[in-house]
Amino acid sequence: MFASDPSKLFELAEFAEEEERRRKRAPWGVMALLLLTGLALMRNGSGEFDVGPPQPASAAAPDTRTGMGTFGTSVAPLAFSAADRIRIPAIQVDAPVMPVGLNADGWVGAPPADNANLAGWFTGAVSPGEMGTAVVVGHVDNQRGPAVFYGLGALKQGSRIEVLRKDGKTAVFETYGIEVFPKNGFPGDRVYGSKGTPELRVITCGGGFSKKNGYDGNVVVFARLVAVN
Hints:
14% helix
């Protein structure tokens, strides 16, 4: 997991951007397994809130369209640029994004749990707006209460997600599905596999909760690039 010192986040972002230009990306079959393992660490909820985080409705399951949004046209993929900030107006998310990679144990690091309003862009995948599937993760809660993606399960098809990039461009995504998947038997290929278009997955913990094991699933938002600002 990356250091939580805010003064180092910009250095980490620049390092991740330069490193990504040089290295080859691992096959998604490997990365999906590693990402799933990393998300299993995101179990910081207290389970003591009066109301738990919203869970997706069955009607929010992904549709079968590819590469098209309500704008009616496909959008050309962008070049690489590190993610800087994520905004989801429907659930009042406006949060900085830090790079997260694999820690010393080979698990995907999560943003520091003590910073409730911080998301993580997984540098082992593409950057948001590039061809392929970009991944942004964040905590649903911590010991003090709701965190950045507490409301993720309340999104609906057609919700807008904006990812501000280091190159000054904003990749605008449209949600086309929201589901909860169990951590055991997580469908990595379905969630992370490339659809042949620029896509985004936003992931947090969800499902049932126990103090011993934390959350037993992940809320996954499926979205595709529909505009660039």
